[in-house]
Amino acid sequence: MPVYTHGGDILTAQAAYGGEVLDFSANLNPLGMPAPVAEAARRAADQSACYPDPLCRDLRRAIAAHDGVGEEQVVCGNGAADLIFRLVFALKPKKALVTAPAFSEYEEAVTCVGCQVARYTLDQSRNFDLDAGFVDAIEPGIDLVFLCTPNNPTGRLIGQDLLEEAVKRCGAVGAVLVVDECFLPLAAGGPGLAPWLANHPHLVLLRAFTKSYAMAGLRLGYCLTANEGLREQLGKFAQPWSVSTPAQAAGVAALTCCPHWPAEGRRLVENSRPGLAAGLTAAGCTVIPGQANYLLFRLPGVADLKERLLERGVLIRSCANYYGLGSDWYRVCVRGEEENRRLLAALSEVQ
To answer: Same domain, yes or no, for 75 and 191?
Structure first.
């Protein structure tokens, strides 16, 4: 069986620990799932004897109204990861450009179609921030470019000027630019690039309910693009009924009943993150000053911190599988102050 490297594997952690664990490995809204969303999913389960709407009509209508785009520009999927793979299967790129470190599914997807991967290594001394050299790396022959703002796992936002340069450069060389904005609602990075779509048909935005509404188990993401041909191709590479009836209902409820939820979660994160970062630093960690609902840090020379903390009932994310990082790099989500204190107390006990 393949090794699972992402966060959120609660069942394996509970089995290893022998009880409930405090999960810092999945970067979800610390407020949890809003009650109207959970209730909508429960009600929709009673209707699940029928197939779900294959066109996600109500959901796409709600997303379009919320995001300020045309309903036809919305493509829904079984989480953002589903859409990443569908994009790659639709485009069949020959050469793709990614940052290092970055979310591993970009590279996992493109290698499935035999695509060559070019990695642009981010500099730790600059907090792994994207720089203008990345734009220069978008050369003729690059078919597909992935960016993530805020980046996963660094938590660093990409400046608007640099994003604009990347969009223009991709247009000039004929590359599709995919900008992953899944964590943006929980970071102080503004509303995103949806207003740019109409003038840039080579631009694709990835968004998800997973993080903002803490509904990872329902699997619901979407992408936005003005490229009609690409939208048609994405439909061809979708499994029938890939978005369940409960997931569709939960998404509609999230946007219509509690659109404020991500902003409330962001305020909690912004209040809690400095204290968590300070505690990690005091424990000897090198902390990247993240701007999202998670923090990347290094505990030099300690490659088994995840295992040590799990013995105390705390689950964190090892970042050993990220290109550009080593076995002593880790990521934790930002939770409420009490949970953060429990993490820091466990950290002090295992050192």
So the answer is: yes
Per-residue HEC secondary structure of 176-210 comes to EEEEECCCHHHCCCCCCCHHHHHHCCCEEEEEEHH
Check residue 190 and give its pLDDT.
83
Residue 290 lies in a domain: yes
Alpha helices in 237-326 (DSSP H): 245-257, 261-282, 305-310
pLDDT of residue 1: 62
Residue carrying the six token digits 């294959």: 54
CA-wise closest residue to 295 among 327, 261, 332, 321: 332
Residue 244 lies in a domain: yes
What is the pLDDT confidence band of residue 4, given thresholds at 50, 70 and 90?
Answer: confident
pLDDT tens digit sequence for 130-168: 999 999 999 999 999 999 999 999 999 999 999 999 999
Residues 130 and 213 in one domain: yes
Instruction: Decide: 132 and 112 in contact? Cβ < 8 Å.
Output: no
Average pLDDT, the chain: 96
- Same domain, residue pair 186 and 135: yes
Question: Does residue 5 form part of some domain?
Answer: no
- Does residue 181 sit in the same domain as residue 45? yes
The most distant pair of C-alpha atoms in the chain lies apart, rounded to whole Å, by: 56
Least confident of 5-19, 55-69, 207-221: 5-19
Domains in the chain, number: 2
Q: Which two tokens stand for residue 95?
A: 């050469």
At 286-301, the pLDDT tens digits run 999 999 999 999 999 9
CB atoms within 10 A of CB 321: 13
Q: Judge whether 1 lies within some domain.
A: no
Distances (CA, A) of 285 to 207, 296, 300: 31, 10, 7
Q: Which residue has the tokens 């290092």?
A: 100
- Could you tell me the end-to-end alpha-carbon distance of the chain, in angstroms, rounded to an integer? 32
Looking up residue 305, the CATH number of its domain turns out to be 3.90.1150.10
Strand residues in the chain grouped as ranges (E): 22-23, 74-77, 95-100, 116-121, 144-148, 176-180, 203-208, 221-224, 286-287, 294-298, 314-315, 317-318, 329-333
Residue pointed to by tokens 């997931």: 247
